[in-house]
């Protein structure tokens, strides 16, 4: 689902005014920053360049380690990434972290478009925990065929209720990211909450309920979709860096070695890897409890079922993860493949398949810029 504030409008610097031949998507994470440049050619998205730089070394930490860099350092990483990838355009769509955003659905009586605008300003004051004057808000009415009440029944005007997706981002967050990319020599043409970018690039057209999970280094984002539309999102401060730290402590190795073990061995069932698996599995299961709590809470409230789980982010590619989640939840688990929406030389395929899940946000942002 696209958020109008982030994609169209008349205020300079907040939106796209026209289609760009080439555009950058930049995903600013705590462990790394990712960039991709796409070109629009005959209604096709063509991959021009891509790259990733670890944030850790810019703060005297290890590769893969989540760090909090000063804004000037983030600008430096982006500038280095642009230079090393040979990116040629300066037009960029910037991702806004879910943890810095507010996304929810609210139920209100059926209203005209004019009255809905007034009502959502009031509803925003009820749901958003900071003054409305300090945020940019937007909303979108959810179609009747994806609205359910607590009994799983379709909710329509007949029972006097409509559902509206409400989103908000603090103005100072928008300004922060605008300043960061501008200092790196780029022109921020749009901003988008990362979950919508990931949906665009990694989720197929679904007719039922699905759960999208973005496994980051220090945070995990969860989003429930009904027919491809966001119904609920949640972020918690625990990511796959926890597994790396657990491995380092339990196996008596440094962070770099533990990170390598996580990425190359993971949950392998091979006999010689059982020691690694025994450390990782309980740490992962602790995170999956949060996923189960989130999904169960939603289905109990609104009915319906979750038939698929999409996983993206840097942690999603850990060996054995897909099978482990399948065993835990008993549903189909799909590893995000954002480059499936992009054309590129065939010899890139093995590399892009491997790194694909971690580039879901960046690819989705660039695709947004080409729309």
Automatic annotation (TrEMBL):
Gene3D superfamilies for this protein: 3.30.1490.300, 3.30.420.40
Any one GO biological process: cell division
Domain SHS2: residue ranges: 23-202
InterPro entries given in the database record: ATPase_NBD, FtsA/MreB, PilM, SHS2_FtsA
Record-given protein name: SHS2 domain-containing protein
Originating organism: Candidatus Ryanbacteria bacterium CG10_big_fil_rev_8_21_14_0_10_43_42
């Amino acid at each position: 689902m696209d958020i109008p504030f982030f994609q169209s409008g008349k205020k300079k610097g907040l939106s796209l005014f026209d289609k760009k031949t080439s555009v950058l998507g930049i995903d600013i994470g705590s462990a790394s920053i990712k960039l991709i440049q796409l070109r629009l050619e005959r209604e096709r998205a063509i991959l021009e360049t891509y790259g990733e730089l670890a944030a850790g070394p810019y703060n005297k930490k290890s590769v893969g380690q989540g760090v909090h860099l000063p804004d000037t350092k983030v600008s430096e990483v982006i500038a280095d990434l642009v230079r090393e990838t040979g990116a040629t355009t300066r037009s960029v769509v910037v991702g806004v972290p879910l943890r810095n955003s507010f996304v929810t659905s609210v139920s209100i009586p059926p209203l005209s478009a004019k009255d809905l605008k007034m009502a959502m300003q009031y509803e925003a004051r009820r749901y958003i925990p900071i003054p409305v004057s300090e945020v940019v808000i937007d909303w979108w009415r959810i179609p009747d065929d994806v609205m359910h009440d607590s009994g799983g029944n379709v909710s329509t005007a007949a029972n006097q209720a409509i559902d509206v997706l409400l989103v908000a981002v603090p103005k100072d967050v928008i300004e922060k990211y605008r300043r960061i990319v501008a200092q790196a020599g780029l022109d921020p043409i749009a901003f988008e909450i990362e979950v919508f970018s990931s949906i665009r690039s990694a989720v197929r057209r679904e007719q039922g309920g699905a759960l999208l999970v973005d496994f980051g280094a220090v945070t995990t984002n969860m989003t429930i979709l009904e027919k491809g539309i966001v119904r609920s999102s949640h972020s918690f401060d625990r990511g796959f860096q926890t597994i790396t730290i657990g491995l380092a402590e339990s196996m008596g190795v440094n962070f770099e070695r533990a990170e390598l073990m996580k990425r190359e061995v993971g949950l392998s069932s091979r006999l010689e890897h059982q020691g690694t698996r025994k450390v990782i599995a309980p740490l992962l299961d602790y995170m999956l409890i949060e996923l189960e709590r989130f999904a169960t809470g939603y289905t109990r409230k609104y009915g319906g079922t979750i038939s698929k789980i999409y996983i993206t982010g840097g942690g999603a590619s850990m060996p054995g993860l897909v099978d482990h989640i399948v065993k835990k939840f008993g549903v189909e688990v799909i590893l995000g493949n954002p480059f499936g929406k992009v054309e590129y030389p065939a010899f890139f395929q093995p590399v892009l398949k491997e790194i694909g899940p971690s580039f879901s946000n960046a690819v989705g942002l660039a695709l947004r810029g080409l729309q």
